[in-house]
Amino acid sequence: MTDRKVLIVGAGCFGISTAYHLLKRGYGDVTIIDRSVVLPAPDAASTDMNKVVRSSYSDIFYSKLAQEAIRAWKNEEDWGTTYHESGVVVLDPPAAVGEGPIESYADMSFDNDVEIGARVRRLEDSTAVRSVFPSSVASSGRLAPLSDATGYLASDGGWAEAAQGVSLMTSRVVALGGRVVPGKTAEGLVREDGATKGVRCTDGSLFYADLVVLAAGSWMASSFPELNLDTKCLATGQSVAMVQLTREEADVYRDCPVVLNFRTGFYIFPPDKHDVVKLSIHAAGHTHMAPHPTAQRLISTPRTILSHADEGLRIPRTVAIELRGHLSHIYPELANKPFIQTRMCW
Predict the structure, then answer these.
(1) If we measure between CA atoms, which residue out of 152, 212, 148 comes closest to residue 186?
(2) CA distances from 252 to 87, 88, 225 (A)
(3) Spatial separation of the C-alpha atoms in residues 16 and 27, rounded to whole Å
(4) pTM of the full predicted structure?
(5) CATH number for the domain whose boundaries are 87-158+235-345
(6) 4-18 residue pLDDT tens
(7) How far is CA 295 from CA 206, 250, 272, 285, in A?
(8) Which of 109, 151, 227, 288 has the fewest CB atoms nearer than 10 Å to its CB?
């Protein structure tokens, strides 16, 4: 046991998991602060309604790390119904003219999955790709032709109920003696004699510690402008949309795999327990350059429901149109349904 005080800024996935492992390793004084009054924060990236869980990465380190995580997710005693092993269909359409014969991200990911012993199966043509979908979808016109589609099925992958996972880990942190303090917005570091001694919050409160861990995600640069992180990294928001199905419609698509297109960045989940289908495009994203009150410069700062109410949920119209186009190329019957909600995932 160590009596060193630890302060963690950010109660999302990284902050809470860091607190958990420090407590398990004998740190007895761990405090986590977060800007949101409600935890898990409704606008945090780690508490989006669901997240893809896969070992399909082009970097073998991440493939091994993800495989370890998947084994942990499958422990229902720890995680209950948080993880859903639906499988992940990785699509790798033909390269565009002029791209050249380079090995694709999907090829490298497949090779790594094979190396770590993951359950994967090549899908050499559209017939093979369509075969991994339930017959109620594949043979009823609900699944697009997927012409020229190739890829592979990663059977060990799936998706996790993100907010539920963070909530469970937060409960464990509290049970181990961690102190979680919501509603504290960090605005700078407390420095003494060239060393970081704590964090200053916008309400004037100060939190001191022997070790300060910053896990504020996309809020990092705007929360700590003195670190000049905006010259090294840029906060961007990814556009996300949700489609509401009826229970009968959802049951048709319930057993579909996650679909992930590595060339376009488009991905889509099967319906969740509320019969909602989430879709998104993993891309460079969009910035929100806002004047910082003390730094006297523009810093990309997340624009969310907590900072801008309902306006913070809007996504660019061009992306909304692009999302519908991609949706029509997977599940055409769903492409004309309204988006019940959109958000930027920062």
Answers:
(1) 212
(2) 17, 18, 49
(3) 14
(4) 0.93
(5) 3.30.9.10
(6) 999 999 999 999 999
(7) 20, 49, 42, 24
(8) 227
